[in-house]
Amino acid sequence: MNLTLWIIACLLAAVFALAGANKVFLPKATLAKAPGGGWVNDFSARFVKLLGVVEILGAVGLVVPAALDIVPVLVPLAAVGVAAIMVGAAVVTSRRREFVHVLVDLTYLGLAVFVAWGRFGPHAFV
Question: Is residue 10 in a domain?
Fold first, then answer.
């Protein structure tokens, strides 16, 4: 189970690092042209950049504290933060009637909740 939690946390970290980097470094107009990227038109460029920074911080928090054994309780806290981001993403995409993207958001939400449950509960870093 510990290995499964590590794999899922690393997968989520990779996804959120890439998504966050795209939001931070790509212009809003470029993001809007991507498949499923129309949501950025509903938000300011500043918010999109801030969301990207938060996603990168979440990615770092999912792996680095445990890997370096420095305050590993940050891993489940980061997973809760990532889950909160995905709840917001699911709400936004469902309001836009992009139901395929809602399923993707809910999948990432489920994975983040699983990591939070596993690291807060039975497989916490001691």
Answer: yes
Nearest-CA neighbor of 42 among 116, 92, 103, 86? 92
Structural domain of 11: 2-16+52-120
Q: Could you tell me the pTM of the whole model?
A: 0.91
Question: CA-to-CA distance for 44 and 32, rounded, in angstroms?
Answer: 12
Residue 100 burial by Cβ neighbours in a 10 Å radius (0-12, 13-18, 19+): exposed
Q: How far is CA 43 from the centre of its chain?
A: 18
Which DSSP symbol is given to 34?
S
Q: Which amino acid is at 55?
A: E
Rounded Cα distance between 102 and 96, Å, is 10
Ranges of the chain whose pLDDT falls below 70: 126
How many domains does the chain contain in total? 1
